[in-house]
User: Fold this.
Amino acid sequence: MRHLMSPLDFTTEELDRLFDLAGDIERNPGKYSHICQGKQLATCFYEPSTRTRLSFESAMLSLGGEVLGFSEASSSSASKGESVSDTIRIISCYADICAMRHPKEGAPMVAMQHSSIPVINAGDGGHQHPTQTLTDLLTIRSLKGRLNNFTIGLCGDLKFGRTVHSLINALIRYDNIKFIFISPEELRIPEYITEKLKELNIDYEEVISLDDVMPKLDLLYMTRVQRERFFNEEDYIRLKDFYILNKAKMAKAKDDMLVLHPLPRVNEISVEVDDDPRAVYFKQALYGKYVRMALIITLLELN
Ligand code: NCD
Assistant:
């Protein structure tokens, strides 16, 4: 039985097959509308979510399956002190597959070890967010036609942003990717990641100014400052509006650069950018549904 804890759980060939399946689902949704009939997805969310949980639920419903679950720890037995390992044993009795989000890094991994159904990590603390990465990769592959030969700028909260950590992990397997990390000093990319890039001889630079690097980028991945992972509110307030992508900055970018964002957006992308054809973050959320449909089919071994 397979689970999804990290984007690296799939080889690049397996990812290609997953993305091909997502593409087929996008083109022929009717073909897949009953494939999960009689199957149930449990969404166990111990942390807030809009897109991830609803796209999982929408994905399962669009495949003809059913969904059950909880959307906050306070409405589950976690509030009575139940452990994740006990909860997953129970969920395994009621559902065929489980998507779990948890504020503690590694919690979905603990669940996986005690589960008799596939477990999907839907975000664990500041660690990983593999299904967002699948979403990001599918978006890039669909709109650019390739997953290699890019300069990608990752901007904002590179310290706490799990989507960034997951995406870098996945992109280093493709050829000729150059990373530009754009962040304030306090929110720099963790050293364990830059160490890994050095070891693998992957090109990267760390900068503070977004303006300066705009013309070099093929992809710009914006992120929100992760308020919930800060130790004090003053630091958050000082840093939250450090970057605001606006029309003036977009004017410096290549004509075919794409702007991605895992969402939710707070202030880091001005709404005036939304109409720019290079802003693809809302499209990206739709790819998130197709890729989760493909993932559910793959983990339930229905294809
Ligand atoms: C991201 C997350 O939860 O890490 N959201 C999402 O799932 N699309 C990004 C974020 O919350 O900033």
